[in-house]
Amino acid sequence: MEEAGLSSRGERTERSPSTGDYNLKINMEDFDGNQRFAKYKNMKVDDEKNQYKLHLGEYTGNAGDALPEAHPSPSGQWNSLGAGQQGVKFSTYDHPNKDDEKCIRHDMSGWWFSKCESGNLNGHYYNGSYQAVMDDGVVWYTWHGWWYSIKSVVMMIRASDVHPAGSN
């Protein structure tokens, strides 16, 4: 099994899927015990030279598509993570990408930022049901908006040709 991950400093923790032959599943739970998920086909993470740019294919799930779609920011302006075909680069405090420095200072995390908001699963963890004053928490806009910090998140990557027993 091939696993991958990036630390909050953007360091590779294992091998990174760079072929696009991977699926990403994100499981989320709020503080009331409600659970949601987001799945993306053809997930690809570029190499270090390309700043771990994230590309995502087709979305399915019940959490809403907070990564590649455009969403209004809290100020009312529309923005997009842009993690579709063109992708978006991974940024950290010490390695910000174009236009990401404000997001990193504001959200205090490493993530695939583009205008900060729609989804940040590496945000500040608030221990308890907390409606944040700032949208710096663990945010999935299409489920709970910007101001709610999610209780738990698990991101799983699997080769697209691997199927669990009993599935199609």
UniProtKB/TrEMBL annotation:
Domain of life from the UniProt record: Eukaryota
GO molecular function: extracellular matrix structural constituent; protein-macromolecule adaptor activity
GO annotation terms (biological process): blood coagulation, common pathway; fibrinolysis; platelet aggregation; positive regulation of heterotypic cell-cell adhesion
UniProt domain Fibrinogen C-terminal: residue ranges: 1-161
Main location, first listed in the record: secreted
Cross-referenced Gene3D superfamilies: Gamma Fibrinogen, chain A, domain 1 (3.90.215.10)
Keyword Secreted set for record: yes
Subcellular location: Secreted
Region: Disordered, residue numbers: 1-25
Any single Gene Ontology cellular-component annotation: fibrinogen complex
Repeat keyword on record: no
SMART domains: FBG
Keywords, alphabetical: Disulfide bond, Secreted
Name this polypeptide is given: Fibrinogen-like protein 1
Organism: Salvelinus namaycush (Lake trout)
Name of the gene encoding the protein in the UniProt record: LOC120035113
